[in-house]
Design goal:
Layout: H1 2-30, E1 32-37, H2 43-46, E2 51-53, H3 57-63, E3 75-81, E4 86-92, E5 102-110, E6 113-115, E7 120-122, E8 136-141, E9 147-153
Parallel strand pairs: 1-4
Antiparallel strand pairs: 1-8, 2-7, 3-4, 3-5, 5-6, 8-9
Length: 166
């Protein structure tokens, strides 16, 4: 009986993991591309080993630079997607339907700050210089606001660093 329960539990875990992977792959293939402008970061945190600390201007516009969101809950903001796919903050999501050029972005409150998908970009050891000129984070966004950070982008809207083959 124990063996059957262990096998069933293992199958359920594997199914859940595979479902999550499939969902992320679908988001990479079909998600809307939205660029969020990076906000200044403490220079000591800019490059720490093999990752870059990230903050986004849209979060500062929505909640203020200091964060101060200890009591706030996770939610969504709405951005206007303009030229080159750059998203600019419009409002906190209040349930109103989106205009055609708007996108809903999910944020999570962590350590008193709004976080869009991640607060760091990891890269291969020794390649940090390639990302020093980053100006935007490139996200794939689902209709319900889920995000995946896919690249860092420079001022001329070029993807930085080497693309990792899929």
């Amino acid at each position: 009986m124990r063996k059957a329960i262990a096998i069933a539990a293992g199958a359920i875990v594997l199914a859940a993991v595979n479902w999550t992977i499939h969902g992320r792959e679908q988001l990479l293939e079909t998600g809307r591309v939205v660029l969020l402008e990076l906000a200044p970061v403490d220079p000591r945190s800019l490059m720490q080993g093999d990752y870059m600390a990230l903050r986004f201007k849209a979060a500062d516009q929505a909640f203020g630079r200091g964060g101060g969101m200890r009591q706030a809950e996770d939610g969504h903001i709405v951005v206007q997607v303009g030229e080159h796919g750059v998203g600019t903050f419009v409002r906190r999501d209040d349930g109103r339907p989106l205009a055609p050029a708007e996108a809903r972005l999910r944020y999570r409150v962590r350590e008193g700050r709004a976080k869009f998908a991640t607060n760091a970009y990891f890269f291969q050891e020794g390649t940090g210089r390639a990302y020093a000129s980053a100006r935007y984070g490139e996200f794939r966004v689902s209709p319900d606001g889920d995000l995946l950070l896919t690249h860092l982008v420079g001022e001329a809207f070029q993807r930085l660093g080497a693309d990792i083959p899929r």
